[in-house]
Amino acid sequence: MDERFRALVEGLHPKFEQLVAMEPHAGVPPPTKMPVSGIYLFSDGDKPLYVGRSNRLRKRFFLHTREGSRHNQASFAFRLVAEALKLPPASYTKDGSRKVVASTEEFIREFAAAKKRIRAMNYRYVEETDQTRQALLEIYAAVVLQTPYNDFGTH
Prior knowledge:
Blueprint: H1 3-10, H2 12-21, E1 25-26, E2 38-44, E3 47-54, H3 57-65, H4 75-84, H5 98-101, H6 105-119, E4 122-127, H7 131-145
Antiparallel strand pairs: 1-4, 2-3, 2-4
Helix pairs in contact: 2-7, 4-6
């Protein structure tokens, strides 16, 4: 393995351990004094569901959970709704776009419920400012925790 890559990867597990050992915030917003950049984890009780990364961790929490967030801002909620409504993968055609799917009454209702559900979930985070390590840590945590709502496929 290339030594530069090895150096990046070797520090992932200690950061992962910090993430899962953190006392979760549940049903309340994260503290105002928290790291700016890193990865975050949403869990339903003890069940890890979704890992993300951001250079604005606190703001990203609110994008996932606030009532006014749109489908392209609350990706976790979108995935919950897509599963609940058994939506086909979004397409790049005019009729199959996410924007069209997100405009239906059924989607709007379910999307609001999903964001409310996420607000009540456990929320943890760990600081990581290096962008490459942040991306690798997100993938590492999602793989190890087997989070069902992470998708690293191309769209």
